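User: Show me an example of a complex going from sequences to structure tokens.

Assistant: Sure. Here are the input components:
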Amino acid sequence: MKKVVTLNDIAKAANVSMNTVSKVLNGKGAISESTKKKILAIAREYDYHPNIIARTMRGLESPLIGVVVSDMEDPFFVKVISGIEQRAWKEGMSIIIGNSAEDLEKQRLCIENHLSYGCRNMIVMPVNEDPAPMRALQEKNIRLVLADRLVQFEEEFHRVTVDNKKGAFDACEYLIGMGHAKVAIINQQSIVTTETDRTDGYKEALKKHGIPVRDEYVRLAKNEEEAAQAAAQLMRLPDKPTALFIAKDRLSLHVVRALNETGVIMPDDLSVMIYGCPHWSQTFRPFFTCMQRPIKEIGVTAAEMIIDMIQNGTDQIVHQKYFSASLMERDTVKKLN
Amino acid sequence: MKKVVTLNDIAKAANVSMNTVSKVLNGKGAISESTKKKILAIAREYDYHPNIIARTMRGLESPLIGVVVSDMEDPFFVKVISGIEQRAWKEGMSIIIGNSAEDLEKQRLCIENHLSYGCRNMIVMPVNEDPAPMRALQEKNIRLVLADRLVQFEEEFHRVTVDNKKGAFDACEYLIGMGHAKVAIINQQSIVTTETDRTDGYKEALKKHGIPVRDEYVRLAKNEEEAAQAAAQLMRLPDKPTALFIAKDRLSLHVVRALNETGVIMPDDLSVMIYGCPHWSQTFRPFFTCMQRPIKEIGVTAAEMIIDMIQNGTDQIVHQKYFSASLMERDTVKKLN
DNA sequence: GTGAAAGCGCTAACAT
DNA sequence: ATGTTAGCGCTTTCAC
């Protein structure tokens, strides 16, 4: 077993002090060309790599971003992480990941864990809207960015997300503009505003155009199966909707399956708009009309906020970014009349 | 800004030595009930959390699993990671993730990075088959598990993967058993055996049943677009195949799109078998016949191997697990004659 | 230009 | 049953 090489090993080999080696390797202080060259050569020969842990212990900041993701099984969040990783990597930073799995207690443990690794930067997709755990982080002077999901008093926090209410509003207004007055929505039953905002946006769009919101058209599903059932029920209504807004990406596959099974022809029997852009939405005819969100950019931007704070000390000014969802007009929305 | 609480803080508050506090908090050594109680109370009150970094520096093993994933954009690998995280978490271990993005140099950097965090456990999905970087890890006495992808001299390494050759063989033998002699394959052009094995399995199945392998039926695509083109070309052949084996999950969506665009009716014009089980495969009619792999289990098992080595010191005996892919008979394979 | 020494938070010998 | 001390690998201050 090869022992791992330390500064001390190199110092001995080069017949200098650890201090000198440290300076050379970090490019600090004044060192003669000759010793510099000698040390560099030895370091390479020995395949030296600095021990980040020791550095961190010494008081230097750990180049680590702690990510707390609310659900690692959801491709959406994973794509956010991928964006974080990509941007962090360019800055020589690593990411440590905790999966809160929508569980508050686990979220607490994830945060603690990251903290115990000396992590001073965190990107969190919180499990609920309670600001307390996030404030606790700020009090510890952790650089915290909320990604995708926000908490109450959002203006207190660095954050990057999508304007979901507007996205949903735009989506529904588009449906209305295409002549649909009977617009239904299937959304995830939720406690986070990133999701409930979409129902709000839906209602606002209707309201703006003088269309009353009908309870039987608003379906909040606990899971994929319920969403599928809701779709089938919607189509059995005496006064069926002519358009459906599927407000959650993840439910859409099951809703569409249910629609297919019920024999619904899109868009003739029903116009369909999906919030999000599943990759199968352009494979099977008809192609689905969607509101697309810049997912990876959420991650990239979150990482960039952290980086900006580190490099420019801009912790005090609140970083915020609200992306817009953009309409992808495809085949599943039919113009009425 | 709240200072983070250390052992020393607690020691002072309790009027004992750091050592005593350490012992209490780790449940070691003999401590009187009274001091134990006092210290525990203070620790809770102060919200003390151990500094893992300091522990690791002290020589204790870091409860960290370093993951090096070959492509974070691929849902397959992400699901593997999710399995790792899930299992590791139960053991109180965290994961640190590096994305090699199919780049050898980046893989090297990821590994180095994990090492510099004092990580002694790694799960790697290697970018190529060169055993050298993996052997280097073993020489450092790192617990290394290869996940999904292997390297040359695989028997030297702890590993968990899917028997892809057999999976592909079974898939093709099933097609042949359904009366298909003209079986084409679209696979990813690749250097890793997890992928090339599938082409081998395809060829072996044909050979076993006395069917010659035709070059024009074997299409290796660099990316999704090429795969789609290959599908279209296949259907323009004077002597068209009656069955198609899509050997890579990730290409399947695009191949199916191309097939749809060409107006191919499945399974009447062409029987289709997908290696992998995309979640859309059961949404649109016809449902796709697939060879399903236990993806998350790969991650869980890899983590379990690490845990077993840590807990039972079984580093010396090589851990190995080859999962089988299982046939999901659905609607896209038609019985001929 | 270079070296010596202190100390980050913790644990394990070794006292007492 | 409890305390003292050393030291993990590194950086920083302060000498020389």
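The lines above are the inputs; the final block is the predicted structure for all four components together. The mean pLDDT of chain B is 96.
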